[in-house]
Automatic annotation (TrEMBL):
This is Sensor histidine kinase DcuS. The chain crosses the membrane at residues 16-39, 177-197. Keywords: Kinase, Membrane, Phosphoprotein, Transferase, Transmembrane, Transmembrane helix. One of its GO terms (molecular function) is phosphorelay sensor kinase activity. It comes from bioreactor metagenome. The keyword Nucleus does not apply.
Length: 540
């Protein structure tokens, strides 16, 4: 069984914190048992060595004692003095001590273990003879020390030893300490494992590894389905993630190397000044322009906060052209919807009048009213369609006429206006509708609160090489400060939700080679003039 398979088998079905605790217990248990076993095996040798060293120090101390040497030189030997000195040493060390005179006769013995130290009371064959009379489990031959008098003559012998049962007792005591220490260490290890497991679980927000893996996979899948290019940066403004749309934007921008973006600074993609502002302030920024290797994009910067700490930011971007196309489409739909709603509203008002006349059985007035509105509508439709030959644009202007009637505005199309049907093959009629629709709505809005006659004039003049559109209103004059900013994206004097229409007009004109100007004064009001060159193949 491989290590990976064994690991899966052991921890199968366990939660992360349980696996951590079990793993630490197993590792510590094996380590402690192994150490305790090895130490126990070595303990006997260690105790024997220490006791042997103690025995050597004690015998050397006795051999160098002038009082012992003097007692041995007396005739007869002063055994009481020797026993008195030896007993003090033995009581302090728990050692077995035997002293012989120069002839090998036993003169003093201290035996705290109550073992039979000697089979005979004398040994006349020197050190070998002395050792033959002593038990080997206590004394060793090399431990015999000579006792010298002041003249350097041998006056006796001393030998010190420790019984084996003392060695065993000391070894057991040491092993008991090791076992107790190991148990305490294991208990502390278990407590530490529990604390570590809890800390890991809190760090992972209570998720298990498999759940984190699933979330990561789901996140990657979600990011790859997002149409915006997403760049995730850390607190140092280094990239750590780019989704597929982001890579496609880089590819479109002409970036050759689309690999190894991990930990590269965002500055290699685009200017990172705005991103650093968000990383410093923790506040999101919207509609930020990014120049990605010459590709114009716009996006948002959202800070990432974990546990109250700012850890990075998400930069999501879209090509400016894609956003502009979407805004143009929405603007066009809005214009169509407004025109249709105005026509519906005007139609319903007329139906209410007709219904009222029918209810009062006033058929004469009903006949006059129907003839009047029929004639009026017919005149308006004929007036517009005779000049505007494109059905889409003429229908749009008829709707705008209804919209103006609803707002009680005097909206007129100049008699000189003309838009030939084949011009829509050169200039996209949707572009014309976007431009005229936004300029008319801007004029309608400017006259909304005017307390005098409110007039809006539209002129569509077609020349051989140029299309000129003018939208004029008699509203309040626009100050020079406002005129300088009127075409900037997001600029408005009408509150939130505005500031896009005139910007889109200028952007659209830039793409088709046109231009726009505006004049405003107190006497004549405000007039917008649009000039669009007519060139074959210029349709967008």
């Amino acid at each position: 069984m491989s290590y990976q398979n064994m690991q899966k088998h052991i921890f199968k079905g366990m939660k992360l914190y349980q696996a951590i605790v079990l793993l630490i217990i197993i590792v510590m248990g094996i380590a402690l048992i192994t150490n305790a076993t090895l130490i126990r095996k070595q303990m006997g040798s260690i105790v024997n060595l220490r006791l042997g060293m103690n025995a050597t120090r004690i015998s050397t101390t006795i051999a160098n004692s002038s009082e012992i040497a003097e007692a041995l030189t007396k005739v007869p030997v002063d055994e009481s003095a020797i026993i008195k000195l030896v007993s003090k040493i033995s009581n302090a060390t728990n050692a077995s001590i035997v002293i012989f005179d120069a002839k090998g006769k036993l003169t003093a013995v201290y035996n705290p273990t109550n073992e039979s130290l000697l089979e005979t009371t004398s040994a006349s064959q020197g050190q070998i003879g002395i050792m033959q009379g002593l038990p080997n489990n206590i004394f060793k031959k090399d431990d015999v020390k000579n006792i010298y008098d002041s003249n350097g003559n041998i006056v006796g012998y001393v030998i010190v030893g420790f019984p084996e049962d003392l060695v065993s007792k000391l070894s057991r005591d040491a092993v008991d300490i090791i076992v107790i220490s190991s148990v305490l260490a294991l208990a502390l290890g278990i407590i530490g494992a529990l604390l570590l497991a809890r800390s890991v679980k809190n760090t992972l927000y209570g998720y298990e590894p498999i759940e984190i893996a699933n979330l990561l996979q789901e996140r990657n899948t979600l990011l790859d389905t997002v149409k915006e290019g997403v760049f995730a940066v850390d607190k140092n403004c280094n990239i750590y993630l780019i989704n597929i749309s982001g890579l496609l934007i880089l590819e479109k921008a002409g970036v050759d190397d689309l690999t190894n973006w991990h930990e590269k600074p965002f500055a290699v993609v685009a200017d990172d000044s705005e991103v650093k502002k968000v990383l410093k302030s923790g506040k999101a920024l919207n509609n930020i322009d990014f120049d990605i290797h010459g590709l114009k994009t716009v996006g948002d910067i959202i800070p990432i906060t974990i546990g109250g700490t700012l850890t990075g930011a998400i930069v999501s971007v879209n090509e400016r052209t894609a956003i502009k196309e979407m805004a143009e489409q929405l603007t066009g739909v809005t214009n169509y919807a407004d025109a249709l709603r105005a026509q519906t509203h005007e139609f319903m008002n007329k139906m209410h009048v007709i219904n009222g006349l029918l209810a009062t059985d006033n058929l004469t007035e009903l006949k006059k009213y129907v003839q009047q509105i029929s004639s009026s509508d017919e005149v308006n439709m004929e007036y517009i369609t005779s000049r505007i030959k494109d059905p889409l644009l003429s229908g749009f202007l008829i709707g705008k006429k209804s919209r103006a009637n609803e707002l009680q505005l005097d909206f007129s199309l100049s008699e000189e206006s003309f838009f030939p049907a084949d011009l829509s093959k050169i200039i996209a009629v949707n572009d014309i509708i976007l431009i005229i629709g936004n300029l008319l709505e801007n004029s309608f809005e400017a006259l909304r609160f005017l307390d005098k006659e409110r007039i809006v004039n539209l002129a569509i003049l077609t020349y051989e090489d140029e299309l000129i559109i003018t939208v004029e209103n008699n509203g309040p004059a626009i100050s020079s400060d406002v005129l300088a900013k009127i075409f900037k994206k997001g600029y408005t004097t009408k509150g939130s939700g505005h500031g896009v229409g005139l910007f889109l007009v200028k952007e659209k004109l830039a793409t088709i080679g046109g231009k726009i100007s505006v004049e405003s004064d107190i006497l004549d009001g405000t007039i917008f003039t649009v000039e669009i060159p007519i060139k074959e193949g210029a349709k967008t």
